[in-house]
Amino acid sequence: MHPLHLRSAGTSLVISTHRGEAEISHWGADLGDALPDLSILNEPIPPSAIDANVPAGLLPQASSSWQGRTGLRGHRFTDGVPGYDFSVRLRVVSATADGSAAVGSAEDGSSAVIVQSDPDAGITVTSNLTLHPGGLLELRHTVTNDATSPFQVDELATMLPVAPDAVELLDLTGRWCRERHPQRRAIQQGTWVRTGRHGRTGHDSSLLLAAGTAGFGNRQGKVWATHLAWSGNHEQFADNVADGRTMIGGSELLGPAEVVLQPGESYTTPALFAAYSDRGLDGISEAFYSWFRSRPHHVDVAGKPRPVVLNTWEAVYFDHNLETLIELAESAADLGVERFVLDDGWFRGRRDDHAGLGDWYVDEAVWPSGLTPLIDAVTSRGMEFGLWVEPEMVNLDSDIARAHPEWIVGPSALSFKDGGRLPLEWRHQHIIDLVNPEAWQYIFDRIDTLLRENNISYLKWDQNRDLVEHGHAGRSSVHEQTLAAYRLLDALRAAHPGVEIESCSSGGARVDLGILERTDRIWASDCNDALERQTIQRWTGIVVPPELVGGHIGPTTSHTTARTHDLSFRAITALFGHFGMEWDIREVQGPEREELKRFIALYKEHRGLIHSGKMVRADVPDESMMLHGVVADTGVHDDGTAVGATAALFAVVKTRTGFAEQPGRVAIPGLEASRSYRVEAIFPAPVDADYGHTVIEAQPVAWLANGAVATGRFLGEVGLPMPVLNPEHALLLRFTAL
Fold this sequence. Notes:
738 residues, ten-stranded antiparallel beta sheet, eight-stranded parallel barrel, 43 strands, 18% helix, 29% strand
């Protein structure tokens, strides 16, 4: 059987079957059209080892003497006794690429379907692989029970081999208000496992697991990276076995007996998305961004630019007063806000976070005429109206909990009213059991009714606790709860296709491609501190494009860190995302209000570029400085040649004091080498109130006052001397092709 060769955007994936099972012989740089006889890759057999070549299978197997993590773990119940068929021996039944056994397409992405079976064990695994046009690989396995007795799946993992020169590992970790911070280590013998047992993705979840060559960076080095598209319990891992081979991948972390396949039933893994780059981490981002932006349901940034948002949470919290909120709406409209989002506190009994969740009715005591007066006040001023909801959660102090205690999740088969035990509370709340069809239908009906009865364009969908001791009818059920939440979102989107949905989860605790397949943006963090957000947004953006990442200007003094920052630093930080504000903007007056208006106009002028261009992150030697931006990605001319980078926007960010007295020349990468560009510093400007806090001008940089003209090659190789910036300040630069 011929090998399958999938090619796209400078990436090759070669799948061989010459040893009886499917094996990925190469995932990395494009290999061109011709492949040799892959038997030349058979490894030597070392002394004191298995007397055979051991393949690193598409689904690694103990039956092939693979000594790392195996792809499938499970066992069969025979006559009610567990433990049988614990080790399967899968062999290829069929392997097709792009619908045939031919080599895959060279340019426009390609796909393969590989079926492997063990008739003795009664197990078949079908693997679906798609190499998308931008180079992003999508991999899923489906296991089917072909026998006449139940088979329990303990794990079905998706994993890929990386080249021997991948010697460093990067992943992300964090906590509430400090999500997605990087950590690095050498790849050493053994297994590095990142386990998420939160029942949701988790604040500490690694959005990306990346293996690379020594010292790989933003713009240099080879990188192989994976992401598991799942919003429940999961594991991500790098597995380096004794013979030196390394696999990276992930799997759903299944609870006890969560997946028991009856005869004929199947289980499909979450998708593993993977990208290879020979241009550092920016190349990985390009592959993910290309995939996102090619989806038919991706936000239409050209037809409907991402609106400026005002969220009311840090302005009023639970203090909902119609007169106050209308004042906020008036102030928002004056600034140029385009979407007004009413946060927590509008529904029955919700005067604080102790009560009301689950009772999704407008509180008649606070809103005697319903939400209509506020919605009319918002929409009449040219803004959309959005609403906060938390449909997966419930307070014990709620009408629905009193009426249906059996709908509240816990480890016991009995409801808590009948003596069953509940998990410990988190933010005074519990989880509603969406696996229960009646509970699911109640939640769907309430949110559906809210959307039908009110002119709501946007839902901020929150999820403010982990799913611990999570069970349905006494059995572990995170797997089914996650799928039920997906079905709920899918059903509401189908019923209300014009309503956008944001995934918020105590800030950034549910950020993954599973939830983003059914939502239109994520809230990166509950922290609006601009210094913290620089790191949070930079590493969220490694996978998620900026048009899907909510970034807001918070109050002058952050509510979560008590740091105080100038408006310009907060604004430039929020700019490189889906921009908005979360602040009592009625307090913003005088020169600061004019500066804010000017910046909102600046966002509107450049949002098309920010939300469609290539993200560029420079490798700056000075660790106290960050340089990042977006370069226009304007496609190709009719003759097929690249249009090139016609415009760019970069932020120069000073996070702390540096060792040197001045930053010196800083190279600006990503521009078209042969083009000339005019470079201007556009925000803050000397007329802005906080300009003097940002730029220290004992002797101004010569080009800063009137701009500079240089080629992309000059800017990328020589750079420009940057002004001395105070810590926790930033400067926005605009590049225009001449």
